[in-house]
Structures are given as structure tokens and as C-alpha cells.
Amino acid sequence: MLLHGMSAPAPRLPRWRIVAPPPPAELLRLYRRAERSTGVPWEYLAAIHLVETRMGRIDGVSSAGARGPMQFLPSTWQLYGAGGDIEDPRDAIPAAARLLARHGAPRDMAGALWHYNPSDRYVGAVTAYARNLQRSPSAYAGYWHWRVLYQHVRGVRVLPVGYPKRPAQPLAGR
Questions:
Q1: CB-hemisphere CA count at 13 Å for 164?
Q2: Domain count of the fold of the chain
Q3: Any idea where the Transglycosylase SLT domain is (predicted)?
Q4: pLDDT single digits (tens) 90-101
Q5: What CATH number did the domain enclosing 144 receive?
Q6: Percent of the chain with pLDDT over 70
Q7: N or C terminus of the chain: which is more exposed, having fewer CB within 10 Å?
Q8: How far apart, in whole angstroms, are the C-alpha atoms of residue 28 and residue 33?
Q9: What confidence category does residue 7 fall into, taking pLDDT thresholds of 50, 70 and 90?
């Protein structure tokens, strides 16, 4: 959902809700539990979650119809969701790990990521964030605090928790 440069600035703000994400320790437990059950490194799961919904801040449906914190298409969810709730990170994070494992992770992370989202930019971005987390696990806390930014034709906007009831704001210094 949020990969910089993947689309032109939009003339309208998104139809998302911005919500407070689950606490970082809770998410880390979910990533590590999924890693233990599938072998998919937790750092890749966190990186996908970061790119897709800023670790759960974005509540909305993508232009392709993907939903939930890990942005699954409903048809893909049927294959990997194991009867869970597409909107619940306790179900979506392990489902993402199952999808990646089915497509070659952890041996072939690039190939597995390609099955998650067939875009070289996506694979590159998720890999870069994951490798940064592997080099410096403390980066996780920083990533968890990232705000939701949106490219609008009038400039980059910050979408605060509470959006759309709380208005989008211009990014300071831009």
C-alpha cells in the first residue's frame, strides 16, 4: 500500500482509517511465533507489515481489493488464512508466513516475496527493511513509530491516528 514511488501523487486522499497499531512487543511476539512455525524470518514479516499497512495503522482496502494488516486478497486468504480473520494480525501474520513458506521461504526469500507481491520494487523494499532489521534489531522500534505519509498532488500529507476524523496535515518542511 505504501511503497514510495509506485504511483503518481493522488488528487484525493485515501478512504482509509488510520488506527493505533498493536503494541510493538505484541507484534514482535506474533512475528517470532510465525517464524518458529514456518521458518520465515520474523524480520521479513515485520518488513511486509511495515510496507503494507505501517504495522497495522492503515485500515482500508487497496485498489486491488487487498485487506487487513498484511493486505491479503480474499482469494489468497482462502488458501492461507486457515479459517481466521483477515483483519486480525494474530491470524494475518501467520498466514503471510504460510504463504511465503509455500513459495520457497526462507531458502528463496526473493521468490517468496515475488509471490506475495509481483513487483521488483516491492521485493527490493521489503528485503532492504528486513536486512536492516537483521543487522540492527533495534531498528524495529523506529519502524514501529513511523507515521503514515501519503503522496497527494498538493504535497505529502501526514495521516494521523484518527484520520479521516482528524484531518491530514502537510508534512512539515516540504
A1: 6
A2: 1
A3: 31-119
A4: 999 999 999 999
A5: 1.10.530.10
A6: 95
A7: C
A8: 8
A9: confident
